[in-house]
Amino acid sequence: MDRLRRLAMLALSFGSFIVVWHVVSTYVVSPHLIPPPSEVLRTGVPMLTTAEIPRHMAASLTRVAVGFALGSTLGIVLGVLMGRIRVVHDLLDPVIEFFRFLSPTAMIPIAVIWFGIGETSKYFLIFWGTFFIVLINAIHGVMATPWARVRAAECLGATQAQIFALIVLPSAIPSIVTGMRVALASSYLSIIPAEILAADSGLGYLLQQSSLLVQTNRVFVVLAVFGLLGYASDRAFRVVTSCLLSSYLEAHATA
Amino acid sequence: MLAIRRLDKSFVLRRGAIPARVLAGIDLDIGKGELFCLLGASGCGKTTLLNILAGFETPTHGDLRLDGAPITRAGRDRVVFFQNADAALFPWLTAEENVAFGLRIAGVPPARRAQVVEQHLRLVGLWDDRAKYPRQLSGGMKQRIQIARGLAIDPAILLMDEPFAALDAITRRFMHAELLRIWAATGKTIVFVTHDVGEAIVLADRIGVMTRGPAASLKAVLPVELPRPRDLANPAFAETYGRVEALLLPEAGQLDQGH
């Protein structure tokens, strides 16, 4: 019943959005500015079937996947070290607090100088947008491990290595997963500007090309595809993490 | 069994500040199998004393021995039970896995481990709930899991830091009866920290009443000679209550002056 209601609300939410869109584009503004949904669909189907969209989508997704994986991995490793080892934290924290305010967009010019417009610069930019978010959440997760939990394990005979692996890391998982989820959204926010400014493939590139040629319909198709992609990625991330890590994540839901 | 001699503890709260003296000249002997309650107002340093006994903190001065061996760090012979079971339990492990934790890291073979875990889950009456996670258990059940987890590694002494203070009054009464039953069944030495006079009288063989901090010490150590189970409605209980509270109350006057 709950599931049915959720599905119904989902359909209703998107359904009413499309209706409003249709009304606005038909009766309020010029279809050259906002093409109606039917028009976008008519443009979109061939773009999907001729592999134009799939090709660019694959390019963008690969960049997000590689950059996100790199950023998350390094963010978790360094974050756990910083959360656990005081001197590492105190040494790196000021520098990180400086760099994390340089957004991926701010790093595009230097990425192009360093890595050109090839894949490496995009990997770097997504990495940049992922790393700091995961890092800060990992540090927090490790540091927020309750004292009582660590001391209880100590009483039960755990060595420092066991406390780290069996108590501190599991305690940090919910925070790390939250960080990764925010970072995934941030990856989607960074990939478009990166591809608009410095790429010859990807959804951002397609968006830019369509805009230069004033192909409003095509711009809308790409935006719709991109929105759905981000939405689907987030859902997939949640499903995968809650399947793999359910006991760690639910454990904290009520604690 | 547990011998505390001239124990002092000071903390440096700020760099350059004069160290704050929390405990001053504690002398205490606790016998094997004894249930000893440390009673004192909040902030008097009784948890600090417990943490020193546990080996989490080191005393500034003084001598501390368990069966003749000096206490320098945390060890499997002394298990602490925390007030906040949500924090102290491992929430990603089931009740059974929580109880098995100390045995698992000590490398106890699975067959033997399963046997010890079952014995202790039955002892605290939660065998049927063994597959549940802490979040699926009530506050009193969580404390019983914490007790089973500590007892499973067979420590010499149980250090309990207001373990029932966060429970409702009815559950707390039940847990007192449970603790006394478990104590009778295992014969463990227990140091039980509390600020509740009634709780101390219900449980203790002896009550160590602490002075109000800073620089707290033991004001008196009173044996409680009432037969168990102890009945709150018994006039002798009320008389003991009055006597213990009188030890705590005169100092309450310091609240007006000092704070």
Predict the CATH topology of the largest domain in chain B: Rossmann fold
Question: How are helices and strands ordered from N to C of chain B?
Answer: EEEHEEEHHHHEHEHEEHH
Q: What would you call the structural class of chain A?
A: mainly alpha
Radius of gyration of chain A: 22 Å
End-to-end distance of chain A, in Å?
Answer: 28 Å
Instruction: Sketch the topology of chain A as an H/E string, one letter per element.
Output: HHHHHHHHHHH
Strand content of chain B: 15-25%
What would your notes on this structure say?
The complex is a heterodimer of chains A (255) and B (259). Chain A is mainly alpha-helical and 255 residues long. Chain A has one domain: MetI-like (MetI-like fold), CATH 1.10.3720.10. The longest helix of chain A is centred in the C-terminal third of the chain and has 38 residues. Chain B folds into 2 domains: 179 residues, P-loop containing nucleotide triphosphate hydrolases (Rossmann fold, 3-Layer(aba) Sandwich); 71 residues, no CATH class. Chain B is built from 9 helices and 10 strands. In chain B, helix 3 packs across helix 4 and helix 3 runs parallel beside helix 5.
The gist of it:
The complex is a heterodimer of chains A (255) and B (259). Chain A is an all-alpha fold. In chain A, 86% of the residues lie in helices and 0% in strands.
